[in-house]
Amino acid sequence: MKLQEFHARELLAAAGLPVPPGRVATSPAEAGTVARELLAAGARGVVVKAQVLVGGRGKAGGVKLAGTPEEAEQVAAQILGMTIKGIVVRKVLVAPASDIRHEYYLGAVLDRAAQRILVMGSAEGGVEIEQVAREKPDAIVRVHAHPHLGLLDYQARQVALALGLTGPYLADAVAIAKGLVRVMVENDADLVEVNPLAVVHERAADGTGIDRLVCLDAKITLDDSALTRHPDLEARRDLDEEDPADTEAREQEINFIHLDGSIGCLVNGAGLAMTTMDLVKRAGGEPANFLDIGGGAKAETVAAAMRLILADPKVRVILVNIFGGITRGDEVARGLVEARSRQERDVPMVVRIVGTNADEAGRILREASFQTAASLEAAAEQAVAAARALGAAAGGDGR
Amino acid sequence: MSILVGRDTRLVVQGITGREGEFHARQMQAYGTRIVGGTRFGKGGQRALDGTVPVFDTVHEAVREGGANTSVIYVPAPSAPDAILEAVDAGIQLIVCITERIPALDMLRVMPVVREAGARLIGPNCPGVTSPGRAKVGIIPGSIHREGPVGLVSRSGTLTYEVVQALTDAGLGQSTCVGIGGDPIIGTTHRDVLELFAADPETEAVVLIGEIGGSAEEEAAAWAAEHLRDVPRAAFIAGRTAPEGKRMGHAGAIISGGSGTATAKVAALEAAGFRVAETPGQIAQLLIDQGVRPQAVRAG
């Protein structure tokens, strides 16, 4: 689960890391109020940032500067309600505008191959670390935290030195690097990224200037498998930004990912579900979704899966592929019959059920006049052919 | 021979009194796996599976009194890391963890302890290991196998069944099928299993089933290019159509920052001499093309 920037900042601040002040606002008036407070506290301006979980918000016009509370209110009015990559902006973060002297990158990520937390730092801040890794791999310092001891002081010092920091910033960077690993461990995160980590010039209320190392932007992704032990973090899930289908899928414990095609897929098992999509594509069609009903699914789960698939108006055909193990084929077949009797929209279905209780499943499906297929390859081809036939009738290409 | 599990397997089922544990323990026993005990803290002294299997409070007792050398874990995710560590401490050398949704950072802490003890962990979030005709440890349906020369290693569950069934239907039996699990942090990798197959005289060909995410398939390919030159080998990668940045069901199945794509894995495997199938049904023929001889297809 991805956290919004303002939530990520909260977790960093709670761990004692230097995060500039700022608050989230849901209306232009509220954004104006936050801006007034920040300006009164000495900020020379404010930045209003769209809070969305997709990248590229700056390019899309979702990040704007303002010099006065009135101006902050105006830009907030522009940003709130705008659409970035299909997501409507409902919240903005209002923070002091920073006088940035230098930008760095610092992040902690799960390194699967090494089975360690990997801390990465780079003096090339403000750009995506993947881009730096491709173009200047030597510009990234990498250190593995110990699985039981965490990131040790000397390792954090190596990172700070490699960033090219000097003087008082060295100690600050050591604390921040160790803090990132602590945030990752305490919250069961997959990724904790500060980009940029920046030296900013600040002016106190008395007019004196000071340079500080601060976490200007933060990105945190949580391990979905650990959310049950972090109810406070689960509560930060942004339902506004989630497709209602995704919310229902999560509640039904169905793995569901919406795609662009016309052939809905209902499968048990993640690997088999991906394979089913691949075979639809290979047969010349486009999958409408990835859907894994999990192991041992009951008839109700099957019915819920059918609802999810049919909620997408682009779906013309449904392909069901079940390899029974813990999942019983007859249970799925009964679920399909029941779901079809209740669904509002009738679409052709191609069903392939093998494994546990497949014979009984076959009997149920035949009695209910479902189109069945023997192999996965044949099922994919039949589904694509059915979509094409409908497409031709409707004057499209059926994909 | 076969690898990991076989006639010498003396199995303890951790969580034998739970719904999943009991169901699968029955299936394993019916397959012929020797189950020497089960564990459930507080139920020591009882008997499970119609009185045929003693229940112990601890894995240590199952080792001491039942001579257990292999464990399979069906306990819920919050207690699974502890179950793995208990098995390690009891001296179990092979631990198969079926449990899914164990937090990755828990596994990060568990793995060094497993390694230090010289034990092997399969999984978590895996379907287990079956050596056809000898022993089944996990949840893979017993009926899909037949004995034979093909060693199979896979990150998936039902996709593994699909491939095994297709091999069996084509007359290609298996020495051992190993489901290593779909999580980002797992105890045994594709490469580890290929190494075991390479040392097994009964395994004459290997099948590698992978999916998007991580770089384990590429690492296995690099090793195979050097060490499996004369071994017929085929592979299949799921997720050619998976979008970037989305977790495809398995916690480990995600393309991030352009890495972990099916295209890269297919290319690495082909460069290492694997014949890569486009569908699960093609795998058997790719092995036959490399000289693996099918056995007569069984009647019924």
Question: How would you describe what is shown here?
Answer:
The complex is a heterodimer of chains A (399) and B (300). In chain A, strands 7, 8, 9, 10, 11 and 12 form a six-stranded antiparallel β-sheet that branches. In chain A, strands 1-6-2-3 form a four-stranded antiparallel β-sheet, covered by helices on one side. In chain A, strands 14-16-17-18 form a four-stranded parallel β-sheet, sandwiched between helices. Helix content of chain A is 38%, strand content 26%. Chain A starts with a helix and ends in a 5-residue tail after the last helix. Chain A folds into three domains: 1-19 and 99-242, ATP-grasp fold, B domain (D-amino Acid Aminotransferase, Chain A, domain 1, 2-Layer Sandwich), CATH 3.30.470.20; 21-97, Dna Ligase, domain 1; 243-391, Rossmann fold (3-Layer(aba) Sandwich), CATH 3.40.50.261. The longest helix of chain A is centred in the middle third of the chain and has 20 residues, at 168-187. In chain A, strand 16 (317-324), helix 11 (329-342) and strand 17 (349-355) form a beta-alpha-beta unit. By secondary structure, chain A is an alpha+beta fold. Chain B is α/β, with parallel strands linked by helices. Chain B folds into two domains: 11-122, Rossmann fold (3-Layer(aba) Sandwich), CATH 3.40.50.720; 140-289, 3-Layer(aba) Sandwich (Rossmann fold), CATH 3.40.50. Chain B is built from nine helices and 14 strands. In chain B, the strands form two sheets. Chain B has a seven-stranded mixed β-sheet, with helices on both faces. In chain B, strands 9-8-11-10-12-13-14 form a seven-stranded mixed β-sheet, sandwiched between helices. In chain B, strand 3 (47-48) and strand 4 form a beta hairpin. Chain B is globular and about 55 Å long.
